[in-house]
Amino acid sequence: MNDPLRTRIVTAPQPGGPEALRLEEVTLDPPGPGEILIRVAASGVNRPDIIERMGFYPPPPGAPKGLGLEVSGHVLALGEGVKGFDSGQPVCALVAGGGYADIARAPAGSVLPVPRGVDLVNAAGLPETVFTVWTNVFEAGALRPGERFLVHGGSSGIGTTAIQMAKAHGAIVIATAGSAQKCAACRRLGADHVFNYREEDWLEGVKAAGGADVILDMVGGDYVAKNLAALNRFGRLVQIAFLNGSRVEIDLMGVMLKRQTITGSTLRARSHEEKAAIASAVRQHVWPWIEAGQVRPLIDSTYPLADVAKAHERMDSMAHAGKILLVA
After folding, report:
1. Are residues 115 and 136 in the same domain?
2. How many C-beta atoms surround the C-beta of residue 262 within 10 A?
3. Do 10 and 91 reside in the same domain of the chain?
4. Strands 148-151 and 172-177, how do they pair?
5. Within this chain, do residues 70 and 94 fall inside the same structural domain, yes or no?
6. CB atoms within 10 A of CB 44
């Protein structure tokens, strides 16, 4: 492939709401060494995209221009040294940017074949959530079969994935959500205990259910102290976002007495090598769950790429349950 390609991308030249998003056309160079160009079928909309649109989450150095962190589609072109993929092969991928597009660029190590039995468009809802849950719940959180796992925002893209993966692993799953409809969605996915945080005291409910050994939290703020109170001895709290704020005050005495661990991470800024290692683990451990029907992407809604502002409005409304996708 010698001639430059043209692709649409989505940018936010000025921070703001969904109205700040712009669809523009740019020239795309051929794939560099170790890269794959993907003809995009769909891309996932994720909370970090919203934060980037608002001006609070700048892309890491070297990231492709534009919003979007995960895609599915067909291999369009292979860069020098890329092995294990064929032109036209259905794939899904984690990207550092530029996923809202007709053509996306991905490091080969972050590209995976679409699992058997998963629709190509729906596969766009896998990479960001599965990679995030694997590295935080199973690696950092070291969740073991039989342990109690609590995830907040159980009906979100991360939450719906975490419920299914933890259940497939043999954990007892507890979730919180903000409406009866969302709580019902969590139960359908396999959650053993679900609490509507708008109507009941989820902390007391979790304690009554036996507490939690691992907690995946994206709320932060006043939830941190409550999470530590819900956490059992030797429990692990894994923080991946902070919708209620990143600055908190906690009493470390309880952490010491119960020998708890507090950790957290981000995914986007990790090196290609780190992401490739996560992808390898996901393919080994999670893809079999997906192909066996134990884990599936729960899709809330799809929008044409040109309607990206409507997709962001849906995400901003917090009314969704599962993944929001853009179809190229």
Report:
1. no
2. 17
3. yes
4. parallel
5. yes
6. 30
